C-alpha cells in the first residue's frame, strides 16, 4: 500500500463521530471495551466495528488482558492532528463571528 492510500485510510477512519469520540476517550489512558462502552449511545458490537477500523488504520493498539481487550492510541501524533483541525475550526468560527459583527 502506498503512502497516499495509507493517508486516505487514516482520514476515512477519523471521518466518523463515534470513532473521533473513541480517540478522544483514549487520549490519555488505555481502556477496555467495557470502559469505552460506558456513557455512549451505541452497542458493544457497533463499538467493536469502530475499534477494528481504527486499529486497521494504525491509529489504535489492542492488547488482550484476561477476558478484555484494552485499547490505546498507537501514536500520539494523531492527537496533534486532531488538535490542529479543532484549532482551525475555532479560528474559522471566530472569523465568521467577526464578519457578522460578533466578538
Automatic annotation (TrEMBL):
Keywords: DNA-binding, Transcription, Transcription regulation. InterPro entries: ArsR-like_HTH, HTH_ArsR_DNA-bd_dom, HTH_MetalResp_TranReg, WH-like_DNA-bd_sf, WH_DNA-bd_sf. GO terms for molecular function: DNA binding; DNA-binding transcription factor activity. Pfam families: HTH_5. SUPFAM superfamilies: Winged helix' DNA-binding domain (SSF46785). The keyword Cytoplasm does not apply. It comes from the Bacteria. Residues 1-97 form the HTH arsR-type domain. This is ArsR family transcriptional regulator. It comes from Tepidibacter formicigenes DSM 15518.
Amino acid at each position: 500500500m502506498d503512502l497516499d492510500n495509507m493517508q486516505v485510510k487514516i482520514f476515512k477512519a477519523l471521518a466518523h463521530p463515534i470513532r473521533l469520540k473513541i480517540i478522544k476517550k483514549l487520549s490519555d489512558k488505555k481502556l477496555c471495551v467495557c470502559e469505552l462502552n460506558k456513557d455512549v449511545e451505541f452497542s458493544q458490537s457497533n463499538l467493536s466495528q469502530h475499534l477494528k477500523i481504527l486499529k486497521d488504520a494504525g491509529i489504535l493498539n489492542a492488547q488482550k488482558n484476561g477476558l478484555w481487550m484494552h485499547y490505546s492510541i498507537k501514536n500520539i501524533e494523531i492527537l496533534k492532528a486532531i488538535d490542529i483541525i479543532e484549532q482551525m475550526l475555532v479560528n474559522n468560527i471566530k472569523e465568521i463571528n467577526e464578519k457578522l459583527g460578533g466578538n
